[in-house]
Design a protein that fits this description.
The protein has 288 residues and is α/β, with parallel strands linked by helices. The chain has helices at residues 2-11, 55-63, 76-83, 100-114, 118-121, 126-137, 146-156, 167-175, 179-191, 193-208, 212-220, 229-249, 269-275, and strands at residues 25-29, 37-42, 46-47, 66-69, 143-144, 160-163, 254-259, 279-283. The strands form 2 sheets. A 6-stranded mixed β-sheet has the order 6-4-7-2-1-8, with helices on both faces. Helix 1 (2-11) crosses helix 6 (126-137).
């Protein structure tokens, strides 16, 4: 379903896991590593009541010397830079791709949920607005972030936090997806909200169950998903492969937390690390 596609890409880290054993936490060892490191798959947005960090994950975080995320989220300058990039750099307007009825629908939704109409958001990047829409469809008053939690824990434990990518790079990824198509995904989530909620609920259930294979099959079956697999997943995973290899061969232990969709598949981080000769072993987290 296209209308649920963008919400899944953003909120769930483009979930597409594939593993014979259900797990979101992996121990990385071998290849002359001095000590093991850990890899964890996140969901970028989750309701507070569903947010869980199980003891094995806490232990892995505690054992590591530093935390590596997709972005360095304790870098104040990077986070400030993100705030300056919310508007479309080419000056594209969302309304340019909407008919009068769609403009009225979006204007009403924004006014009711965010206190300002379409005019205030018209120049925003569509994927940012889609994220905002998704938060209203999650069915909870408070959302949590695994990345935010890991940054807080790292700071409390005196650990350094680093990022695999820059803000410019991540925003640049979405700039390669046509503006009009992003607007279409945005409107489909508004025009068919129950389907969007159903898809998110199914994805969340699989995530909480750590059903890697189920998640993979769900996302792999989505219409037009393959069109952006290289852009959103595979190419980035291959870039991370060499970066993580260098980290693992250096002194110390890392706790790496990335969107869970980057773990699975033949070009997923788990397989790419195994291709380099590392032992990447799933660790059960929910069964304590």
């Amino acid at each position: 379903m296209k209308m649920a596609k963008l919400a899944t890409l953003i909120g769930a880290g483009i979930l597409s896991l594939s593993s014979a054993q259900a797990s979101l936490l992996y121990k990385v060892s071998g290849k002359d590593m001095q000590e093991p490191s850990y890899l964890f798959g996140t969901i970028h947005l989750i309701c507070a009541e569903d947010f869980k960090v199980h003891k094995p994950t806490q232990a892995a975080l505690q054992a590591a010397d530093r935390v590596i995320l997709e972005l360095d989220m304790d870098d104040a300058q990077a986070m400030q830079a993100m705030q300056t990039k919310l508007m479309d750099p080419a000056g594209n307007k969302i309304s340019a791709h909407l008919n009068d009825e769609q403009q009225a629908m979006l204007d009403s939704f924004l006014m009711n949920n965010f206190g300002a109409g379409l005019a205030a958001f018209d120049g925003m990047r569509p994927f940012i607005l889609s994220t905002m829409v998704m938060t209203t469809q999650m069915g909870c008053a408070q959302q949590m972030s695994y990345e935010g939690y890991f940054v807080q824990q790292a700071m409390a434990q005196g650990k350094a936090v680093d990022g695999l990518e820059t803000v410019d790079f991540q925003f640049g990824v979405f700039e390669q997806i046509p503006h009009q198509e992003q607007v279409q995904w945005l409107m489909e989530s508004l025009e068919q909200p129950e389907k969007a909620k159903e898809e998110f609920a199914k994805m969340l259930k699989l995530y909480l169950a750590e059903d890697s294979q189920g998640l993979y099959e769900m996302i792999a079956g989505m219409d037009a998903y393959a069109e952006y697999t290289e852009l959103l997943l595979d190419n980035r995973n291959r870039d991370w492969q060499s970066k993580l290899d260098a980290e693992f061969q250096a002194e110390g232990s890392e706790f790496i937390a990335v969107g869970a969709g980057h773990l699975g598949g033949e070009a997923g981080v788990v397989q790419l690390l195994r291709d380099l000769g590392y032992d990447v072993e799933p660790i059960a987290t929910s069964a304590e």
